[in-house]
Amino acid sequence: MLSSFASNNKALTFTMSGLSKISGLPQMKVAWLIATGPEALKQQAIARLEMIADTYLSMNTPMQLALPVLLERDNFQQQCVERTRKNLAHLDKLVSTQKLCTRLNLEGGWYAILKVPLTGSDEDLALELLNNHGVYVHPGHFYDFPTDGYLVVSLITPELPFAAGIEALFALIDEKFRKDS
What we know:
The protein contains six helices and six strands; from the N terminus they run E-H-E-H-H-H-E-E-H-E-E-H. With 181 residues, the chain is α+β, with helices and mostly antiparallel strands. Strands 3-4-6-5 form a four-stranded antiparallel β-sheet. Strands 1-2 form a two-stranded antiparallel sheet. Helix 4 (76-96) runs parallel beside helix 6. It is elongated.
């Protein structure tokens, strides 16, 4: 039997979703939640959430009217999964051909974390990639890595720009490493 957080009845639990994730529409502020848990706690929480939603989070009329069409974007998730898999396969192929960078194990999501050699700060490397090569990556400190040597890349980037960006990243690291050696 399939189990989820939404079927939890022992502790007050909120399971949330919305268009920003399931349809790839980050600015479309339509979301929902399922509250489960002990009945008295659940009812008290729902009453408070309704007050907050009615006071601060009411859905505007254009979104209400657009919702049926927006929910028809049922192939977004499939497209996202396919693109993520292809980009990850390309990344892993490139990682396997060199010795300077490694990819950390994935635990989910659409980001990959690269361990890169220290040639300066992650932020300096990210800014150099952006300013000189048009490649946008996140420095590890954005994700609370305690030391330099980590870059975070998005796997949902369209495939050709992703491939070009990763190749530029590896070429820059190779160039910097040879210069520093």
